[in-house]
Amino acid sequence: MRECLIDFPFGKWDDENFFEQRAQYLSETYEEISIRDYEEKSIPEFEKMKNIPADVPVNLWFEDDLFCQANLWYVIYFLLKAKKDNPLFLIRPKNNLRYGFGNLNETDLSNIYQQKTHITKTELFADLWQHYASDEKEQLQKTAEQLQATFPFITAAVDARINYPHQPISTLKKIMQISSSDNFSFIFNAFSEQEFIYGLGDWQVKKMIKQVKNDM
């Protein structure tokens, strides 16, 4: 899946024209992405999901941070909308959340695969996406509470959304104020150490750094 739904025009979700909206938004937000890039690299991945054979189990490999969780919620929403009733299973790293799957070896990956969790309340995950995209924060929290018993980590991702983007921007501002270095790698690593719950990549952090500099 080629997406970064953590970066989203909240409250402006257009379900009927979703992919066109995403292509336009991302091309305007990141100079590294063009509308053609999105059309050729991202949309086909979703089209593949529509063609998953019936009854084939779908294993969803997603981490706990908001970047991954927002993508997970949309994938489940998308599958339900496409009327796919395949059994869904969540596979996630249980430890070292900052590095996620990247810190696991083959044995670790095999172990977490064996410990995968069957997602039975798919409608609630779809609700998470709709409340997330529509910027309905109270409903988002209430839905997370309904999933708390089986998926307690979702609460942290939802809390991160409630505090997004002002919390990560505040952290970046503090790092930049106390650091004498303008080196991106240093700033990015310091930020990721403190705010790994967001799972932001370099493009998102560079975007926030630009915003912080404009505000200083």
Note down, in words, how this protein is organized:
With about 220 residues, the chain is mainly alpha-helical. About 55% of the residues lie in helices and about 5% in strands. A three-stranded mixed beta sheet has the order 1-2-3, with no helix packed on it. α3 (about 65-80) links the parallel β1 (about 60) and β2 (about 90). α8 (about 165-180) packs across α9 (about 185-195). The model has no long low-confidence stretch (mean pLDDT about 95).
Compute the number of strand runs: 3
Strand content: 5-15%
Regions with pLDDT < 50 over 5+ consecutive residues?
Answer: none
Radius of gyration: 18 Å
Strand line-up in the sheet with most strands: 1-2-3
Shape: globular
Largest sheet: 3 strands, mixed
Note the total helix count. Answer: 10
Mean pLDDT: 95
Q: Which short descriptors sum up this protein?
A:
216 residues, mainly alpha, 2 domains, 10 helices
Summarize the topology:
Elements: H1 18-29, H2 35-50, E1 58-61, H3 66-81, E2 88-91, H4 106-114, E3 117-119, H5 122-133, H6 137-146, H7 154-162, H8 166-178, H9 184-194, H10 202-215
Parallel strand pairs: 1-2
Antiparallel strand pairs: 2-3
Helix pairs in contact: 1-2, 3-5, 5-6, 6-7, 8-9, 8-10
